[in-house]
């Protein structure tokens, strides 16, 4: 186990900063080795203590930028941080992002192509301006969506959401593809961890939100069941297939990290 932790910690090595002085309260002064040591201490504190470790918000530990999408090493750092807080396997988190909202080899780049325009009917437009019906359910999701956008201080028609598929409603948000009415299940915990209003469209927030929901679903005790519940709140035949796909993707991601270490 100790060997695994050390190997994974080394896999997080990336050229984030190169300043000499290093202090956990001033990560801008950390070089790469200093950042690795900080992350290692987070992992060690989790494994040695029965109590929840006191962990600073992500911005105070690793100054990883949050662009529209991340490469594997960048995403691995954020997933490992989420794992240290929730106990959820980081590779499972990344596998879900890969399935839900990835764009090519980038994590979190495909978050949707529609905008909600009419809050009464749920009608909207796609990214090309074409009218799209059933973008978001007026009864189930729009009230929650308006609360989210209000908390973030943005207009409801300025954020991309998923387009509808077939006869189903669209409107899933962020890299975790949460329906707005489900975001409330995790938003308070994510806000508490980050020390700011949780933003479903921010990569780091979305990664942590996925981990929190998986934790609530019992993924630590039964990974397949917990992932199945993530799919739709309950397990159906489609949900079970989804869980099997995610577990297979998680194994592939672990393999890619291992391959990068060899190179």
Question: Helix and strand layout, with pairings?
Answer:
Blueprint: H1 2-11, H2 32-48, H3 58-61, H4 72-86, H5 90-101, E1 114-116, E2 124-126, E3 131-132, H6 142-152, H7 180-183, H8 187-194, H9 203-216, H10 223-232, H11 237-262
Antiparallel strand pairs: 1-2, 2-3
Helix pairs in contact: 1-2, 1-11, 4-5, 4-9, 5-11, 8-9, 9-10, 10-11
Can you walk through the features of this model?
The chain has eleven helices and three strands; from the N terminus they run αααααβββαααααα. With about 260 residues, it is mostly helical. It folds into two domains: about 1-110 and about 180-260, Orthogonal Bundle (Lysozyme); about 115-160, no CATH class. α1 (about 1-10) packs across α11 and α5 packs across α11. The longest helix is centred in the last third of the chain and has 26 residues, at about 235-260. The radius of gyration is 19 Å and the shape is globular.
Would you tell me which CATH topology of the largest domain applies?
Answer: Lysozyme
The main sheet orders its strands as: 1-2-3
Percent range for β-strand residues: under 5%
| Major sheet details | 3 strands, antiparallel
Give me the CATH architecture of the largest domain, please.
Orthogonal Bundle
């Amino acid at each position: 186990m100790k060997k695994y932790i050390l190997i994974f910690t080394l896999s997080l090595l990336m050229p984030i900063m190169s300043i000499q002085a290093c202090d956990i309260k001033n990560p801008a002064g950390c070089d790469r080795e200093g950042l690795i040591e900080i992350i290692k201490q987070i992992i060690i504190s989790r494994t040695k203590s029965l109590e929840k470790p006191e962990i600073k918000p992500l911005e105070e530990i690793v100054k990883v930028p949050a662009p529209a999408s991340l490469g594997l090493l960048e995403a691995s750092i954020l997933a490992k941080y989420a794992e240290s807080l929730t106990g959820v396997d980081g590779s499972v988190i990344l596998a879900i992002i890969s399935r839900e909202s990835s764009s090519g080899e980038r994590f979190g780049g495909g978050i949707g192509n529609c905008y909600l325009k009419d809050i009464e009917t749920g009608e909207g437009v796609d990214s090309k301006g074409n009218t799209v019906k059933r973008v978001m359910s007026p009864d189930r999701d729009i009230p929650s969506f308006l609360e989210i956008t209000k908390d973030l201080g943005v207009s409801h028609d300025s954020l991309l959401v998923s387009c509808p598929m077939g006869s189903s409603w669209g409107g899933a948000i962020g890299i975790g593809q949460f329906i707005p009415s489900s975001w409330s299940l995790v938003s308070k915990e994510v806000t508490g961890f980050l020390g700011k209003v949780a933003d479903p469209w921010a990569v780091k927030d979305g990664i942590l939100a996925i981990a929190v929901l998986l934790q609530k679903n019992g993924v630590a005790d039964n990974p397949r069941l917990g992932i199945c519940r993530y799919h739709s709140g309950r397990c159906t035949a489609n949900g079970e297939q989804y869980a099997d796909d995610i577990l297979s993707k998680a194994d592939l991601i672990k393999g890619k990290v291992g391959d990068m270490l060899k190179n």
